[in-house]
Amino acid sequence: MHAWPPSTVPVLPGQSPELSVHDTATGGRVTLVPGPVARIYVCGITPYDATHMGHAATYTAFDLVQRLWLDTGREVRYVQNVTDIDDPLLERAAATGEDWTALAERETSLFREDMTALRILPPAAYVGAVESIPHIVPVIERLRELGAAYDVDGDTYFSVEADDHFGGVSHYDASVMRALSAERGGDPDRPGKKNPLDPLLWRAARPGEPSWDGASLGPGRPGWHIECVSIALDHLGMGFDIQGGGSDLVFPHHEMGASHAQVLTGEHPFAAGYVHAGMVAYEGEKMSKSKGNLVLVSRLRAAGVDPAAIRLALLAHHYRSDWEWTDAVLDGAVRRLDRWRAAVSRPDGPPADGLVDALRAALADDLDAPAALAVVDRWAAAQEAEGGADIGAPGVVSRAVDALLGVAL
Ligand code: 5CA
Ligand code: ZN
User: What's the confidence (pLDDT) of residue 287?
Assistant: First the structure.
């Protein structure tokens, strides 16, 4: 699949410190020191509805990671999937009478436009589930050979007991796991499973559902977790730097993914850091396509809202916090953008000497975007109050805000 066009990233003098992030698996901070090529996998959309502020917040958080690593002088290999075959997509298509492939293509195109408008740097590999099926099938067959997969009425399941490290990402107890599994696409009550938590690897073809050649598995379609694992291992290999997504993916998705990969390779861990963004709510509930309480990026854009203001609205919240989208959040961001633009539009200003390093330090400290915004606010306030005679300063500030925060002033 093709991704979306990159925006140019100004090169700043000096470089960012190494990124220290909260890691879900250890429950504490890890300082990641990637090799010359930093490797990150971020779970992509299921394209049955348009990009909402929750998606945009999560992808903006991981965009800060890509920008910070670029600023350390590294190449970044960022991989993102598109879950372009899964139950919710088929259910929506059936409900509206639309062809499911047309629905997926339309929403993926809209997502690309939204990501481009928000200046989110594209992944190096943007990979669909459907196009990956020929790679996924042998991975499931391998799990069978290893004795980690079994059959239930023609469907293939993964045995969580095959992984000694199972539970090592979420650390949830069995009852929480069971409840989350039922809520998030699992089937803990299906009879015939060895463990209620065991996730589906391959769903045998059903009448009226699309299916693909599964070689020894028979015709069918892949389960959700194995899709991301197969894509991540193909494009990044084991032991990459960050597995990312929203906190709703901690269990079962990232737990199961880690287990699949650990059993397949005999290595541990799947990723050096598991980084999860908080949930954005709207009108009191998690914003979600299934509930329909959505604020859409595309709708705001169509209403004439500057995407840079949307981006600033997202950056005003720490990526790990759960927060609620309101009109006031957007109004605040519009005002901040105006203030910053006015401040950098002058020919000179207060010195910006420590500003770039202060931005870098804030972002390297668990992606503290609100602290980074406060650094720029202070410079803009000084500009507004007394100005300054440094003719380089407005340019330094606008290049740093562009490179590190992705906001073009
Ligand atoms: N296709 C799967 C991942 S493989 C999926 O979860 N798709 S999604 O469209 O439901 O979500 C896409 C990304 O946005 C995921 O990383 C998810 O964790 C994140 N996300 C979904 N809803 C919210 C929300 N309300 N707030 C923050 N992030 C969210
Ligand atoms: Zn995923």
Answer: 85
Are residue 271 and residue 320 in the same domain, yes or no? no
In a domain, residue 289? The reply is no
Do 260 and 308 share a domain, yes or no? no
- Helices within 303-368 (DSSP H only): 307-315, 327-344, 355-364
Domain assignment present for 142: yes
| Structural domain boundaries, residue 29 | 20-282
Please report which ligand is nearest the Cα atom of 184: 1
Nearest to 136 by CA among 214, 204, 193: 214
Question: What's the CA-to-centroid distance between 168 and ligand 1, angstroms?
Answer: 21
Q: By the 8 A CB rule, do 190 and 180 touch?
A: no
Q: Which residues of the chain have pLDDT under 70?
A: none
Is residue 306 domain-resident?
A: yes
Residue 409 vs residues 308, 340, 382, 406: alpha-carbon distances, Å: 8, 7, 17, 10
Ligand 1, atom nearest to 224 Cα: 4
Number of structural domains (the chain) is 2
The residue nearest atom 27 of ligand 1, judged by CA position, is: 54
Nearest CA owner, ligand 1 atom 14: 55
Tell me the C-alpha distance between 150 and 115, whole Å. Answer: 40
Cβ atoms of residues 1 and 126 within 8 Å = yes
